[in-house]
């Protein structure tokens, strides 16, 4: 079994909107949290800051750890183009709350996401999104 450690951020603005990037077509064009996999030896706190910048153009500071989500992906559900297709993968997803300290909204170029936007809670409910968004919203006190 493979293991992947990733770090994600819940970033909201003064109007209660949440920052969400959209995964590319390879990942079914679903909306997700800003963040992603840690590099070997990289601190997850540093990884989330790097990933948020790559996917949104914003510089952030981490405020707090909200929780760690665990998911096992069966081997046949992994990307078929992966050289690890068929091998199960445990995904540990570390969720932080963070706030913007600089930068400008800019979609990622040539990465795993192709758009980024701010969404009000009622808009998020209508999005085609990964389930991690709702987990993070609960942990952040943004869902009842």
From TrEMBL:
InterPro entries: Nudix_hydrolase, NUDIX_hydrolase-like_dom_sf, NUDIX_hydrolase_CS, NUDIX_hydrolase_dom. Gene3D superfamilies: Nucleoside Triphosphate Pyrophosphohydrolase. Residues 2-144 form the Nudix hydrolase domain. GO terms for molecular function: hydrolase activity. Its cofactor is Mg(2+). The keyword Hydrolase applies. Keywords: Hydrolase. The keyword Hydrolase applies. It comes from the Bacteria. Pfam families: NUDIX. PANTHER family: ADP-RIBOSE PYROPHOSPHATASE YJHB-RELATED, GDP-MANNOSE MANNOSYL HYDROLASE. This is NUDIX domain-containing protein. It comes from Nesterenkonia sedimenti.
